[in-house]
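User: For a reading group we're discussing how well predicted structures match intuition. Take Carboxypeptidase regulatory-like domain-containing protein. Before you show the prediction, I'll give you the sequence so everyone sees exactly what went in.
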Amino acid sequence: MLHGTVVREDGISPIGVQLKLSGADGNALQLLIADSGGHFEAFALTPGRYEVTPMQGGLERGNGATVEITPGGDVLAEVTLQTASMAAATAPAAPLDNGFFHRLGRAYAADWAGNGPGTLTKEPRRGTPAPLYSPPYPATDWPIGGTPTIGVPDGQTYPLMQAINENKTREKWYGWIEVGANGSTNNKSNASKGIASNFPSAYDEYANTVQLDQAALYYERIPNTAQNDHFDWGWRLTALYGVDYRFTTAKGMLSQQLLLKNSQYGFDPVMAYIDLYIPHVGEGMNIRIGRYISLPDIEAQLAPNNYTYSHSILYTFDCYTQTGVNVTIKASNHWTVQGGISPGCDVMPWTTDAKLTGNLCATYTWSNGGDALNTCANSLNDGKYAYNNLSAYYETYYHRINASWHTDTEFWYQYMKAVPNMYWFNGTDPNTGIQYAPTAATPWPEATFQRAGQGAVNLNFGAVCQDPRLSASQQSARCYAPELAITNYVEHNFWHNEASLNIRNEYVDDIKGQRTGTPAKYEEHMVGFDFWAGSTITFRPELSYTRAFTKYGVSALNIAPGASIANLEGVSQGGAANPLGLGKNQALTLAADLIWHF
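Assistant: Thanks. Here is the predicted 3D structure of Carboxypeptidase regulatory-like domain-containing protein, as structure tokens, for the group to look at:
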């Protein structure tokens, strides 16, 4: 066993100070957290030489200790955290301007200098050590939706709260502004008409533009799940404005911005929930009630919660938010189980698309937190066609290779039953030249009947049940529409955790075109970086290549969503027809975003 004490030079309580435990080869093995007395400990260490180094702002600070662990031995390490010292002054210093904006400016200056406010928490972390560093990664723990990470104290600080009350309360206001830009070989975007020619790429979907992706504001109180002796509660309210509202929108919640107007910019109250923490069930139980981000996935909608600016195609076309109740029980340091009910994916309970929907998920963690396997049935109902009514089944594996490298792999299979045939929505009667209207035999929810040449619009795709070049007599009314996908991330942190390398490779088979609008097999490959200034500015450049293998002679890229289906790309593009063959099946996109956290 290794235990010891850390002391801060400035005399401030060392609670929450992080210490890196490294092996003889210099590779970091664990991240230890000091308690209120500065005490830390590590168990189950193999005999050998180790080094304990205090950390601040992701950098090594102060005097570490080298120790030798022997079989059955108990070793003590004393460590000092170096903090900014005050030089002796020959005359009294002028008082600081203590106005709000001066306090805010000093908070940013301290963060960029690596001297931000300490991560002070009342209780130490319970369970296994954190597998990752944040920054440069979105979080120190593997992703889990529908709950705070049980056993992990909330020590997060923000410049805005430093200016308001020096981060002294558990109620917090914070957010960010994210601006993105890209240059692409796709060239048919018309943002004012909602035409996004980088689609099915997401979050950089408008080609060759500069845009406000997200302006987000949070108000929250996170329940204290690090303690296990009393009930606690919390909440989160999140407001989002920008281009990315189109991905979080739920039908029935200001959804006319997207589903009727297809506006480039919009507003979405993406999260509104309360958390109820009950400590005496297993290692802790959390009950979440309200609108929350769906449970599975490596990626997340909110910009700082994602490795990269753009998102995988896999992530783009699964469930985004649910509104309901979700229960999470941490049974042990190995097992976490979740179950809940909602009206379905991306729908509010008062809409006609709402269906009583269950979800069941389980996560198994091993290797002292370094490996995790999440299995999730995210939406359990009759599976019949409705707005985003995806029957989706996930398997996600997270693996920490060492202190600098880790990899995440996600697979899903999802489907809808009895999906209307897109032919009857987009097709044109060859005898009259008039677009087919939905009929009793071929119903089409939310369809907008328009005459030929006016470009029918429906962002809730049906399915391409048969070759759209076949006659009406050979077209079915509905069909089963499945899709499958797999995505892998390889991540490397460097520059003292101020940067990371991000590599993404994926394969998606949209068998009936229900998710993307075009039946196709997609492959996508991306290389990008994250660069951080302190913990408050993030710059994420990337280069991606997308290839689509399509059917029926249509294209899948450089077109409006769904434009290629049934009428073989004969859809209006800014007033001009887009005949067969003018789309693309390959695209190269250079993109980047800048996130300013407050």
